[in-house]
Amino acid sequence: MTLAFEVTGAGPDVLLLHSTVCDRRMWDPQVPDLVAAGFRVTRCDFRGFGDSPIPDRPWNDADEIVELLGGRPFAVVGASGGGQLGLEIAARWPERVTALALLCTALPGHPKSPQRLAFAGEEDALVTAGDLDAATELNVRTWVGPAAGPEQREAVRVMQRRVFELQPPDMPEPEQIEVEWELDTIVARTLLLSGAYDLPDFREIAVHLAGVLPDARHVELDWAGHLPSLERPELVNPLLIDFLRAV
User: Fold this and answer.
1) 5 has which bridge partners?
2) Is residue 10 part of a domain?
3) Which among 45, 41, 44 has a CA at the least distance from the CA of 13?
4) Are 209 and 190 in contact (CB under 8 A)?
């Protein structure tokens, strides 16, 4: 079964990895600017998101996604859970990843803050009760920052509702193939963005990664929530393009 994906433009390859609150549509504000800047952009839906249903056999997201790029080198731009996947790809294929831009990235094993635990508990309760509309609204309130407008909130609402449709509460836990990887194999130059209005976990992760990755810079956006590329693309796109061009 093939992942849903799109390739646009010509030039050095850039791979866009979406947040697990969203799907590949979250990058709609970035693709035209990246293409105009001279990049070939690949974006896909992970299994259980957007147009990629969960398969009937075990899979590994990183393995499937890297196949989309063939043998070419590429830069990675990842948001939240997509940032964590970007870290895995950069760690497992260090010779392929030319640059790594992480927006409010997750990190496996990082201790969850009381705020994040409270969110998870409330979401689980709503999903278990079958109130997926309320669970969707909880995600929009939690993850979309104050700089976003109604259009951006509605986009996240639609994408998150699609996640619940593809991964209903009565579905057995999908089986993914876990591959061990370590941060110390990452060699790519890294840009880390965090949002002042996000949960504290993600700033802590950015600060930690900036201290352990070999060539990393952390920028905190004082206006941003968890999804800055959606909230204010006119401010984020120049940061990404300048970083990718420099590499």
Assistant:
1) 44
2) yes
3) 41
4) yes
Instruction: Give a yes or no: residue 217 inside a domain.
Output: yes
How many structural domains are present in the chain? 1
Q: Are strands 74-79 and 189-195 parallel, antiparallel or unpaired?
A: unpaired
DSSP secondary structure of 103-125: ES---TTPPPPHHHHHHHHHHHH
Residue 199: domain span: 5-112+171-246
Runs of H (alpha helix) within the chain? 31-36, 61-67, 81-92, 114-128, 132-143, 150-166, 200-212, 228-231, 233-246
- Write out the two tokens for 211: 């201290």
Residue 142: inside a domain: no
CB 213 within 8 Å of CB 87: no
Q: Contact 158/71 with Cβ under 8 angstroms?
A: no
Answer for the pair 50, 23: CB distance below 8 angstroms, yes or no. yes
Query: Which CATH number is 16's domain given?
Result: 3.40.50.1820
Torsion of CA 197, 82, 139, 223, to 10 degrees: 20
56 — pLDDT class (breaks 50, 70, 90): confident
User: Which tens digit of pLDDT belongs to each residue from 150-202?
Assistant: 999 999 999 999 999 999 887 777 788 999 999 999 999 999 999 999 999 99
The pTM assigned to this predicted structure is 0.97
The answer to whether position 120 is within a domain reads: no
| Residue range 63-81, pLDDT digits in tens | 999 999 999 999 999 999 9
